[in-house]
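Listing S7. Sequence submitted for prediction.
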Amino acid sequence: MECLVCQIRSSVGFCAECQGLLCETCGVPCEQCGSPSCPTHIHETRSGRKLCIKCYEDRQAKRAQAKAAAERAHDDEAVPAQVTPEVAEVALVGSARKMPQPWQVSLYIASAGLLAVLLMFVFPSFRRIPLGPTSYIPTPYVMLLIPLIAVVWATVGIIRVEFFRDRSKCFIGIGLAVLTLILSVVAVRTDPAAAAQAQVKSMEEVRKQMTPDQLKDWRERTLKRYE
Protein backbone atom coordinates (compact mmCIF):
# COMPACT_ATOMS: atom_id res chain seq x y z
CA MET A 1 0.00 0.00 0.00
CA GLU A 2 1.12 3.59 -0.63
CA CYS A 3 2.69 5.86 1.99
CA LEU A 4 0.22 8.25 3.68
CA VAL A 5 2.62 11.21 3.42
CA CYS A 6 4.13 11.10 -0.08
CA GLN A 7 1.51 8.76 -1.62
CA ILE A 8 4.18 7.51 -4.05
CA ARG A 9 6.41 4.92 -2.39
CA SER A 10 5.26 1.67 -0.85
CA SER A 11 4.78 1.62 2.91
CA VAL A 12 7.12 -0.35 5.17
CA GLY A 13 5.62 0.56 8.54
CA PHE A 14 3.04 2.73 10.28
CA CYS A 15 2.95 5.72 12.60
CA ALA A 16 3.04 4.77 16.28
CA GLU A 17 0.35 7.38 17.05
CA CYS A 18 -2.09 7.70 14.11
CA GLN A 19 -1.35 4.26 12.57
CA GLY A 20 -0.86 5.89 9.15
CA LEU A 21 1.23 3.90 6.65
CA LEU A 22 4.76 5.24 6.08
CA CYS A 23 7.59 4.58 3.63
CA GLU A 24 11.29 4.48 4.56
CA THR A 25 11.77 8.14 3.55
CA CYS A 26 8.72 9.77 5.17
CA GLY A 27 8.84 7.85 8.44
CA VAL A 28 10.76 9.70 11.17
CA PRO A 29 12.39 7.16 13.53
CA CYS A 30 12.22 7.62 17.28
CA GLU A 31 15.70 8.36 18.63
CA GLN A 32 15.04 6.18 21.68
CA CYS A 33 13.22 3.05 20.49
CA GLY A 34 13.45 3.40 16.70
CA SER A 35 9.69 3.22 16.05
CA PRO A 36 8.63 5.32 13.01
CA SER A 37 6.22 8.23 13.22
CA CYS A 38 4.77 10.54 10.59
CA PRO A 39 6.17 14.10 10.47
CA THR A 40 2.97 15.42 12.08
CA HIS A 41 3.05 13.15 15.12
CA ILE A 42 6.76 13.00 15.87
CA HIS A 43 7.41 14.72 19.22
CA GLU A 44 10.47 16.95 19.57
CA THR A 45 11.95 17.63 23.01
CA ARG A 46 13.58 20.84 24.14
CA SER A 47 17.00 19.29 23.57
CA GLY A 48 16.11 18.53 19.93
CA ARG A 49 15.48 14.78 20.31
CA LYS A 50 12.63 13.28 18.26
CA LEU A 51 10.53 10.69 20.09
CA CYS A 52 7.45 8.60 19.35
CA ILE A 53 4.31 9.08 21.45
CA LYS A 54 5.15 6.23 23.89
CA CYS A 55 8.72 7.36 24.55
CA TYR A 56 7.57 10.97 24.78
CA GLU A 57 4.93 10.11 27.39
CA ASP A 58 7.48 8.04 29.36
CA ARG A 59 9.85 11.00 29.25
CA GLN A 60 7.12 13.37 30.44
CA ALA A 61 6.30 11.00 33.30
CA LYS A 62 9.98 10.87 34.35
CA ARG A 63 10.20 14.65 34.20
CA ALA A 64 7.10 14.94 36.37
CA GLN A 65 8.64 12.44 38.79
CA ALA A 66 11.88 14.44 38.86
CA LYS A 67 9.98 17.67 39.52
CA ALA A 68 7.96 16.08 42.32
CA ALA A 69 11.14 14.61 43.85
CA ALA A 70 12.85 17.99 43.71
CA GLU A 71 9.89 19.66 45.40
CA ARG A 72 9.85 17.03 48.16
CA ALA A 73 13.59 17.39 48.60
CA HIS A 74 13.20 21.14 48.95
CA ASP A 75 10.35 20.83 51.45
CA ASP A 76 12.12 18.18 53.53
CA GLU A 77 15.59 19.75 53.11
CA ALA A 78 16.76 16.42 51.74
CA VAL A 79 20.33 15.85 50.55
CA PRO A 80 21.04 15.66 46.76
CA ALA A 81 21.93 11.95 47.10
CA GLN A 82 18.23 11.10 47.30
CA VAL A 83 17.76 11.99 43.62
CA THR A 84 18.39 8.91 41.45
CA PRO A 85 20.91 9.06 38.55
CA GLU A 86 18.09 8.45 36.04
CA VAL A 87 16.09 11.41 37.35
CA ALA A 88 19.21 13.59 37.33
CA GLU A 89 19.92 12.64 33.69
CA VAL A 90 16.39 13.59 32.66
CA ALA A 91 16.69 16.94 34.43
CA LEU A 92 20.03 17.72 32.77
CA VAL A 93 18.81 16.79 29.28
CA GLY A 94 15.65 18.82 29.76
CA SER A 95 17.63 21.90 30.76
CA ALA A 96 20.12 21.60 27.87
CA ARG A 97 20.06 24.43 25.38
CA LYS A 98 18.20 23.60 22.17
CA MET A 99 20.26 23.88 18.99
CA PRO A 100 18.97 26.39 16.41
CA GLN A 101 17.03 24.98 13.47
CA PRO A 102 18.25 25.42 9.84
CA TRP A 103 15.56 28.02 9.11
CA GLN A 104 16.77 30.06 12.10
CA VAL A 105 20.41 29.89 11.00
CA SER A 106 19.38 30.91 7.48
CA LEU A 107 17.37 33.83 8.83
CA TYR A 108 20.20 35.08 11.06
CA ILE A 109 22.81 34.90 8.28
CA ALA A 110 20.56 36.52 5.67
CA SER A 111 19.64 39.32 8.09
CA ALA A 112 23.31 40.01 8.80
CA GLY A 113 24.05 40.20 5.06
CA LEU A 114 21.11 42.55 4.46
CA LEU A 115 22.23 44.83 7.29
CA ALA A 116 25.76 44.96 5.86
CA VAL A 117 24.48 45.94 2.41
CA LEU A 118 22.24 48.65 3.86
CA LEU A 119 25.24 50.10 5.68
CA MET A 120 27.00 50.42 2.31
CA PHE A 121 24.22 52.70 1.11
CA VAL A 122 24.61 54.87 4.22
CA PHE A 123 28.43 54.88 4.02
CA PRO A 124 29.44 54.68 0.31
CA SER A 125 33.13 54.33 1.21
CA PHE A 126 32.36 50.79 2.46
CA ARG A 127 31.52 49.71 -1.09
CA ARG A 128 35.19 49.34 -2.08
CA ILE A 129 38.21 47.36 -0.89
CA PRO A 130 41.30 49.29 -2.11
CA LEU A 131 44.04 47.26 -3.80
CA GLY A 132 46.20 50.17 -4.95
CA PRO A 133 46.08 53.82 -6.01
CA THR A 134 43.54 53.21 -8.78
CA SER A 135 42.34 49.63 -8.32
CA TYR A 136 39.79 48.16 -5.92
CA ILE A 137 37.35 45.28 -5.42
CA PRO A 138 33.62 46.03 -4.96
CA THR A 139 32.77 44.97 -1.40
CA PRO A 140 29.27 43.69 -2.33
CA TYR A 141 30.84 41.10 -4.64
CA VAL A 142 32.91 39.76 -1.74
CA MET A 143 29.88 39.69 0.57
CA LEU A 144 27.78 37.66 -1.87
CA LEU A 145 29.01 34.62 0.06
CA ILE A 146 26.79 35.57 3.02
CA PRO A 147 23.38 35.24 1.27
CA LEU A 148 24.61 32.11 -0.52
CA ILE A 149 25.36 30.47 2.84
CA ALA A 150 21.87 31.49 4.03
CA VAL A 151 20.34 29.80 0.96
CA VAL A 152 22.32 26.61 1.66
CA TRP A 153 21.02 26.42 5.23
CA ALA A 154 17.45 27.08 4.06
CA THR A 155 17.80 24.30 1.48
CA VAL A 156 18.90 21.90 4.23
CA GLY A 157 15.78 22.79 6.20
CA ILE A 158 13.58 22.17 3.13
CA ILE A 159 14.94 18.81 1.99
CA ARG A 160 15.64 17.14 5.36
CA VAL A 161 12.71 15.10 6.71
CA GLU A 162 13.45 15.85 10.37
CA PHE A 163 12.80 19.57 9.76
CA PHE A 164 9.51 18.96 7.93
CA ARG A 165 7.33 20.99 10.29
CA ASP A 166 9.41 24.18 9.87
CA ARG A 167 9.92 23.78 6.11
CA SER A 168 7.84 26.84 5.18
CA LYS A 169 9.88 29.09 7.49
CA CYS A 170 12.99 28.44 5.38
CA PHE A 171 11.58 30.63 2.62
CA ILE A 172 11.94 33.68 4.88
CA GLY A 173 15.72 33.32 4.86
CA ILE A 174 15.69 32.67 1.10
CA GLY A 175 13.65 35.83 0.52
CA LEU A 176 16.06 37.96 2.57
CA ALA A 177 19.02 36.39 0.77
CA VAL A 178 17.55 37.25 -2.64
CA LEU A 179 16.86 40.81 -1.49
CA THR A 180 20.48 41.06 -0.30
CA LEU A 181 21.75 39.87 -3.70
CA ILE A 182 19.63 42.46 -5.54
CA LEU A 183 20.74 45.32 -3.27
CA SER A 184 24.38 44.21 -3.67
CA VAL A 185 24.15 44.61 -7.44
CA VAL A 186 22.46 48.00 -7.02
CA ALA A 187 25.22 49.10 -4.60
CA VAL A 188 27.91 48.28 -7.17
CA ARG A 189 26.13 49.98 -10.06
CA THR A 190 25.40 53.16 -8.07
CA ASP A 191 28.85 53.49 -6.49
CA PRO A 192 29.78 57.21 -6.86
CA ALA A 193 33.51 56.45 -6.88
CA ALA A 194 33.09 54.03 -9.78
CA ALA A 195 31.16 56.64 -11.77
CA ALA A 196 33.87 59.26 -11.09
CA GLN A 197 36.61 56.84 -12.10
CA ALA A 198 34.78 56.01 -15.33
CA GLN A 199 34.49 59.73 -16.10
CA VAL A 200 38.24 60.25 -15.54
CA LYS A 201 39.07 57.37 -17.89
CA SER A 202 36.73 58.83 -20.49
CA MET A 203 38.46 62.22 -20.27
CA GLU A 204 41.85 60.55 -20.63
CA GLU A 205 40.73 58.85 -23.84
CA VAL A 206 39.47 62.17 -25.17
CA ARG A 207 42.76 63.92 -24.37
CA LYS A 208 44.75 61.19 -26.11
CA GLN A 209 42.87 61.92 -29.32
CA MET A 210 43.48 65.72 -29.13
CA THR A 211 46.05 67.48 -31.30
CA PRO A 212 48.74 69.53 -29.51
CA ASP A 213 46.83 72.76 -30.24
CA GLN A 214 43.57 71.30 -28.94
CA LEU A 215 45.29 69.99 -25.82
CA LYS A 216 46.86 73.42 -25.19
CA ASP A 217 43.50 75.12 -25.60
CA TRP A 218 41.86 72.60 -23.24
CA ARG A 219 44.49 73.23 -20.56
CA GLU A 220 44.04 77.00 -20.81
CA ARG A 221 40.27 76.67 -20.45
CA THR A 222 40.70 74.35 -17.48
CA LEU A 223 43.07 76.75 -15.72
CA LYS A 224 40.69 79.68 -16.23
CA ARG A 225 38.04 77.85 -14.21
CA TYR A 226 40.23 78.06 -11.09
CA GLU A 227 41.38 81.67 -11.50
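Caption to Listing S7: primary sequence and predicted C-alpha coordinates for the chain studied. The longest strand covers residues 128-130. The first helix runs from residue 53 to 76.
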